[in-house]
Amino acid sequence: MRWWVGPARLRSLGILGMNCRNLDFIGRYNPRRLYPLVDDKLKTKVLAEREGIPVPKLHFALREQFRVKRIGEMLRPLTGFAVKPAKGSGGRGILVIQGQENGVYVKTSGRRLDLEDIKRHISNILAGLYSLAGTPDVAIVEELIELDQRFAGFSHEGIPDIRVIVFRGYPVMAMLRLATHESDGKANLHQGAVGVGLDIATGRCLLAVQHSLPLKVHPDTGADFSRLKIPDWPEILTLAARCHAMTNLGYLGADIVLDRRRGPLVLELNARPGLAIQMASDHGLLSRLRQLENLRSRHATVAQRVEFAMASFGQGRGGRARSSED
Ligand SMILES: Nc1ncnc2c1ncn2[C@@H]1O[C@H](COP(=O)(O)OP(=O)(O)O)[C@@H](O)[C@H]1O
Ligand SMILES: [Mg+2]
């Protein structure tokens, strides 16, 4: 798909643009008062646990600077862990530690940090260095997600996540994001991760892109994307779809990870999910969203909505998208 095409061509491809997303979907379907639930990862976690939606376990949260000096003791019982700003986004301020020994903390890339580095990092989080408005924040220390071996070769030095766009409780488009050496253990596209569009019907790869350019193989491992098929696909779509009822957000992006031991978990939710998913899927969102808006009656259960989406939004193997008319 060419990205410099004019507005008329974009419309004919069914590409959802920023203004339309903001006005017709986020504005109409996401009441503002619900934002705090998803803009704060700690709040999302508490809510999810209450609703029985699996999430990475919280080890502890840190709110005050004076507690930072005791962090070494608090971390000692943990093998691996992730530190993140509760109000962060785009992978900024996330530190993924694989293991520790005698005060040395090892990142996913193999880089070693000492206790002072960790303290400085947490102190920066609390000061608001990574929070959206630069306001003071909370540091979350949560369990380390372990790579599901079925992804071996496809993600380098980090945990992949699966972004699912959910509209009115239906999963409409999905993309796998794979960490690369460049993205430093995080699966965020702006950090250099690879985005792989996934066929809603099957969980197979449609197209892979890095920095907006198509790729056939993973840049670090050479793994061939055409062989990629996501395990537990219906479960993943179901988990994403359940996040609609949990938050009441009509238009949301659910980030799901597959943990080796625990299976699919919700990593975070987003009330303003990005538009790049359309590039990785080689398909526009708009026709699917309009189709769902025009349904005479909404399916009653999560299972029925997932089944409808899998039957309606498939793009077939080989990745050529259908046009927006079919
Ligand atoms: N607990 C964790 N264990 C391992 N990797 C993690 C963990 N939490 C986050 N990551 C990595 O960091 C990326 C971004 O995390 P996320 O919680 O979605 O924050 P953001 O809002 O900044 O995108 C994830 O896609 C994943 O690759
Ligand atoms: Mg994320």
Describe this structure in words.
With 326 residues, the chain is α+β, with helices and mostly antiparallel strands. It folds into two domains: 7-41 and 148-312, 2-Layer Sandwich (D-amino Acid Aminotransferase, Chain A, domain 1), CATH 3.30.470.20; 58-143, Dna Ligase, domain 1 (2-Layer Sandwich). It contains ten helices and 13 strands. The strands form two sheets. A seven-stranded antiparallel sheet has the order 11-10-9-8-7-12-13. Strands 1-6-2-3-4-5 form a six-stranded antiparallel sheet, with helices on both faces. Residues 318-326 have low confidence and may be disordered. Magnesium ion binds at residues 255, 268. Magnesium ion (MG) is lined by residues 255, 268.
Which terms would index this structure?
single chain; 326 residues; alpha+beta; Dna Ligase, domain 1; 6-stranded antiparallel β-sheet; 10 helices; globular; binds adenosine-5'-diphosphate; binds magnesium ion
Please summarize what this structure is.
With 326 residues, the chain is of the alpha+beta class.
Topology (SSEs and partners):
Layout: H1 7-12, H2 18-29, H3 35-39, H4 41-51, E1 58-62, H5 71-75, E2 81-85, E3 95-101, E4 104-107, E5 112-114, H6 115-127, E6 139-143, E7 161-167, E8 170-178, E9 194-198, E10 205-210, E11 213-215, H7 233-247, E12 251-259, E13 263-270, H8 277-281, H9 286-293, H10 302-312
Helix pairs in contact: 7-10
Which structural class fits the helix and strand makeup?
alpha+beta
Strand order of the main beta sheet, please?
11-10-9-8-7-12-13
CATH superfamily of the largest domain: ATP-grasp fold, B domain
Order of helices and strands: HHHHEHEEEEHEEEEEEHEEHHH
CA radius of gyration: 20 Å
% residues in beta strands = 15-25%
Note the overall shape: globular
* Cofactors, ions, other ligands: adenosine-5'-diphosphate, magnesium ion
Helix content: 25-40%
**Per CATH, which architecture of the largest domain?**
2-Layer Sandwich
Q: Report the span from N to C terminus.
A: 18 Å
Count of helix runs: 10
CATH class of the largest domain: Alpha Beta
The number of distinct structural domains comes to 2
Topology, number of strands: 13
